[in-house]
Amino acid sequence: MNAIDDKDFGTPARHSQTLVTLEIDGVSVTVPAGTSVMRASAEAGINVPKLCATDSLEAFGSCRVCLVEIDGRKGYPASCTTPVEPGMKVRTQTPKLADIRRGMLELYISDHPLDCLTCPTNGNCELQDVAGLVGLREVRYKKGDNHIALKKDESNPYFTYDPSKCIVCNRCVRACEETQGTFALTIDGRGFESRVAAGQNEAFMDSECVSCGACVQACPTATLTEKTVIRIGVAEHSAITTCAYCGVGCAFKAEMKGSEVVRMVPWKDGKANHGHSCVKGRFAWGYATHKDRMLKPMIRKKISDPWQEVSWDEAIAYAASEFRRIQQQHGRDSVGGITSSRCTNEETYLVQKLVRAAFGNNNVDTCARVCHSPTGYGLKQTLGESAGTQTFDSVMDADVIIVIGANPAAAHPVFASQMKRRLRQGAKLIVVDPRSTEMVKGAHYSADYHLKLKPGTNVAVIDALAHVIVTEGLLDEAFIAERCDTASFAAWKAFVARPENSPEAMADVTGVPAEQLRGAARLYAQGGNAAIYYGLGVTEHAQGSTMVMGIANLAMATGNVGRSGVGVNPLRGQNNVQGSCDMGSFPHELPGYRHISDSIVRSEFEAAWGVTLNPEPGLRIPNMFEASLDGSFRGLYVQGEDIVQSDPNTQHVADALSAMECLVVQDIFLNETAKYAHVFLPGSSFLEKDGTFTNAERRISRVRKVMPPKAGYADWEVTQLLANALGYPMNYAHPAEIMAEIAALTPTFRGVTFEKIDRLGSVQWPCNDAAPDGTPIMHIEQFVRGKGRFMITKYVATDEKVTQRFPLILTTGRILSQYNVGAQTRRTENVRWHSEDRLEIHPHDAEERGIREGDWVGIESRSGQTVLRATITENVQPGVVYTTFHFPESGANVITTDNSDWATNCPEYKVTAVQVMPVTQPSAWQKNYQRFNQQQLELARTEVSDA
Ligand code: SF4
Ligand code: SF4
Ligand code: SF4
Ligand code: FES
Question: How many CB atoms lie within 10 A of CB 200?
Answer without folding.
Answer: 10
